[in-house]
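Cont'd.
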Amino acid sequence: MSKVFSTSLRCRLPCLLFFFQGALLLLFILFVTYDEHTDAASQSPDADPSANQLYAFFSLFQDIQLMLLVGLGLLLAFMKGYGISAVAYNFLMANFATQWALIVQGFMHHYHQGKVHLGLYNILTAEFAAVTVLISAGAVLGRTSPLQLLLMALCEIPLYVVGEWLTVTRLQAVDVGGTITLHVFACYFGLGVSIALYRPGLQRGHPKENPSYLSDLLSLVGTMILWVFWPSFIASLARQGDAQHRAVLHTWVTLSSSALTSFATSSLLEKKGKLNMSHLQNATLAGGVAIGAVADMAITPAGASVLGIVSSLACILGFKYMTPFLATKIHLQDQCGIHNLHGLPGIIGAVGGIVAILWIPDEAYGLRLHQVFPPHAPPLGNISMAETTSEGQELGRTASQQALYQAAGLGVSFVVSLVGGYLTGLVLKLPFLAQPPDDLCFDDALYFKIQEPVETWCVVQAHEDLHLPLKDNV
Amino acid sequence: MSKVFSTSLRCRLPCLLFFFQGALLLLFILFVTYDEHTDAASQSPDADPSANQLYAFFSLFQDIQLMLLVGLGLLLAFMKGYGISAVAYNFLMANFATQWALIVQGFMHHYHQGKVHLGLYNILTAEFAAVTVLISAGAVLGRTSPLQLLLMALCEIPLYVVGEWLTVTRLQAVDVGGTITLHVFACYFGLGVSIALYRPGLQRGHPKENPSYLSDLLSLVGTMILWVFWPSFIASLARQGDAQHRAVLHTWVTLSSSALTSFATSSLLEKKGKLNMSHLQNATLAGGVAIGAVADMAITPAGASVLGIVSSLACILGFKYMTPFLATKIHLQDQCGIHNLHGLPGIIGAVGGIVAILWIPDEAYGLRLHQVFPPHAPPLGNISMAETTSEGQELGRTASQQALYQAAGLGVSFVVSLVGGYLTGLVLKLPFLAQPPDDLCFDDALYFKIQEPVETWCVVQAHEDLHLPLKDNV
Amino acid sequence: MSKVFSTSLRCRLPCLLFFFQGALLLLFILFVTYDEHTDAASQSPDADPSANQLYAFFSLFQDIQLMLLVGLGLLLAFMKGYGISAVAYNFLMANFATQWALIVQGFMHHYHQGKVHLGLYNILTAEFAAVTVLISAGAVLGRTSPLQLLLMALCEIPLYVVGEWLTVTRLQAVDVGGTITLHVFACYFGLGVSIALYRPGLQRGHPKENPSYLSDLLSLVGTMILWVFWPSFIASLARQGDAQHRAVLHTWVTLSSSALTSFATSSLLEKKGKLNMSHLQNATLAGGVAIGAVADMAITPAGASVLGIVSSLACILGFKYMTPFLATKIHLQDQCGIHNLHGLPGIIGAVGGIVAILWIPDEAYGLRLHQVFPPHAPPLGNISMAETTSEGQELGRTASQQALYQAAGLGVSFVVSLVGGYLTGLVLKLPFLAQPPDDLCFDDALYFKIQEPVETWCVVQAHEDLHLPLKDNV
């Protein structure tokens, strides 16, 4: 059936992108102006230039961009003939989704006096939104056209903004590194899409799904880049000072524990103790997903280490047992194993947050309690620093109450994303979206004008030389 | 004819490099000393160490080095058997040209009390000079020996310094991100060289010019690295504070618009809507070239977006129609398409600067007008901050006058570079410079002791296996 | 003989890693707590968040992590079928060794009131310790199992901490960038291990030792990353202010001189003047190794340039003449040539430090003499800044005395590492450590579940196609 429709992107991709970029440009012209950090006219003559907000996070912003476009791009490039698509679509979606989030978040959070006020900080928060799209796409990578991926981004971004608003603004759940609002949301949205896009023809695997030696190596390099800059990602939205320092420290400790645990567990589960590349590429990052929910809490380095160990264990067990189980039982195709890297560690991190809130006494935070837990801390009487008062502070919840709200936040994120993802997936089945037919999945050559990868070429050539029939379309 | 001369680098390359490094060392010994930021003896006892100039730009400096040596190196490594040369020559030229610019700029701008005063900031500005060489080399990549490339750097650096002095110091044109002085200059210098080095034998293409699957992928990764750190490049010479913040914001917006426009346009122009790799590798960066001329002006985010859209459109149309046209009509061989990525967007950016100066009212800058437009702003009566007064401020030009000077700056940059490049190219035709013969162009093995790339090897092998004659020297 | 024992990692690698991570977790739980920069409860209400220690070095820390995990990983990935091992083991060892150093250094230097106090700065110094392991492993790369590498890390870290304590704390040798304590130590430790692990069967080389075209290219990219971020590494432990600025400036100048000298020398020594990849991959970094001992001294840019030229010359001459000589005469197998990149430049740097101390007059440092040379400077009478007084300052050594102590530091580092390495090597010969047999050395497939690299595959295929016997196990 899927072969009936054209897979040509001509006209369709340009139309979508030009229309989108044109519409956004119109909104920019009509509504977008500078914020107080970027507007020249509103600078006071005695303002200290080095105190501009830019310097509080610009190097973190660059780190995060490198993570997303190079690190994640390479990590996704693990299939032998789909590396160019992985890097290019990742780049395309990141830009599409960030611009879109800039507008959606802008009208939602930064609209006053008839204008959306823009500085680099807005782009940072918009990139967080875009990350959800990049993660979700991992579930359907190689089985979707760029048109489908862009439409997915179009649907996912507003839903993410709503989900985040419900979880963080309404429920006042604490989630400094986006474990609940970002990773859990992105994972179940992606799985929802994947369920809707289920293809029986790919149930028994596809010859082009496999990595080559070099794609495995490049993917591992991508993991390294993500691993290195993960602390910047987690810390970027944490409060300046000791909170940000704790976030960085915890993230390093949890990632390092994840790394050692991944090598150990992979070797334990594979024949002859050999190390499995997809375990190393993914599970070494699992702690980074989990830590987001608790990064600035006083969980102690030991707590961070436990979280890293448990998350990477869950991730590898997920790859080994859960992914095949889900594929067989509920027809869930999860191309990059996002459930193992984002779903399970995300839930573990969210639960860890609840445990941490119940377990750690308020005294561990001293005067910083108001910063780390605005809704939990008692209202402040006399505070000298303006930035310590923030939304939610008047709530005065007990720790148990806050724990309940955290659980509610996790539930909201899970339900909204899974349902939203499934509905989005149904939309993506529309016939004019150039979805690749089964036999042309996982193949760069379908949408890119490129050389065939040498690996494929060599295999083909060798078979021809030996006069062997070619099986599996290789 | 070109085969008559030896292509051996032995003696010639070592002689040039040892002589150059030796001469520079002599100049360092005789004339170079620390500046006030690096000299221990001149530090006052109560100086705040954290206020050292280093911290204002060190992380930007590292970002830029990564762009140049890894990002640009990989981007240039798009030919299947010329990746090692691309990365290695890029590295060699960057060092040669930066050291040379350090001396030339040092004697021109930092020479007082009989000494050239050196700090890391000098290396940053010298690297800007070196970038021109790296860009220009793109026009003749693969058709030149390292000796020729180094001689080109030797000629280009002083000319760049003169061109920049004419444009920025004499004409007081505003160009914070180097669109006019750097990109336009580098492009037409490179094209001048290329015209002089025209080879009829390469007119109909060369079998080794093509990318392989992996070289295309690595080149795209290079694009990603350049894309990510471009804001650091543009902002590094902008004034601290809101001006630098605007520069970063505009650069991101323009690059993002370029990215989406590139995907759209490439798909529109290619058969079956397939995406063309060289479009994605280049045009996604076009906005970054153009934005340099206006990065800190109050062009609004919408203006930055327009610039990104127009630049990437021009870049792709250039690749599709202008490069073949120029190659046929005026025998202009432009290996990496620098005219499309640096020439056209550079001119667009320069024109954008003129429009912005004429269009944006002075009120948009408030008290910052003196910072963004020293020659345009009226002389200041009473300024509290010392750094707001700068050269040119007494000129008091009208906006129209400033616009004329901008146009003059563009003209000077264009003429000086094209003529200088052509004359340099004539010098590079000297017979003892080890220029590769036509059939050994685009081949790493000529100047490097390496393994043949597997792609070539496989092709050769397959042809041998099949007893087919090898055509095209593959 | 070596074939008698199993090479399966199953049980052994998981046991070692789980036991190690478990033991460390126990120590974390019992003894590790936050330091004053990360502990929320101990923050005073009026503390300036932007003055947190984190911001003094976080971006340097990220740079260094990128160097170690991506840069060094890729540099080591130069063998055609051992790239995955190189990157993965480098990652594994880095985490294992850093965690281990965190505990060893923690109990040695940061233990008070019954607790080890932890902040990100501890992780930075622990990573310096881990670097020694990563360097040492270069001597035996491909001939060792991951078990052996981890055991080596287990032995090397405490010895490094002791060696550093002897050199820096007891002898008060000055070594801001770790030339003596880190590079010289790591090199001779690794060579000691290699001597103990000598294998006659590999004396005449191994077919898989060679690079492929792409592994050579990726390794060069690794060099670029290391080259770019080397200034961050050298400067990270230097004092803030002009000292750190000098360290960065000197490192750039020395690296740049090394780069040009490497191209010149390589071309001089190879047939037809071709450039040798291993020269470019290594010798361009040699100056960075040497500069560590003198980075913040007033050696002038010319001095830094001389150091870069001499170091890279020594490095290439080492590759060309010394490595073959040592291999033949004393059976020293040095897989990555660490003696050329770390040993010789390390000794040159240490000697350079002695010369600089004897040569440069105290006046060149002014009031900063106490910062650069605590043990050499006369005791301070009246100092306003608290951080200028430091351990050793009361010693009041003359320059000649200090020079002698520097030489003693070099000697201690050399002897402790060589003997310690040899003894460690003897331990690594224990039969149950899964050491690879000769014919399976340098082969990713032994310990990883992967695709064969296409290069190997093509070669095999070609031989089969041509009905040629396969020699050398390729």
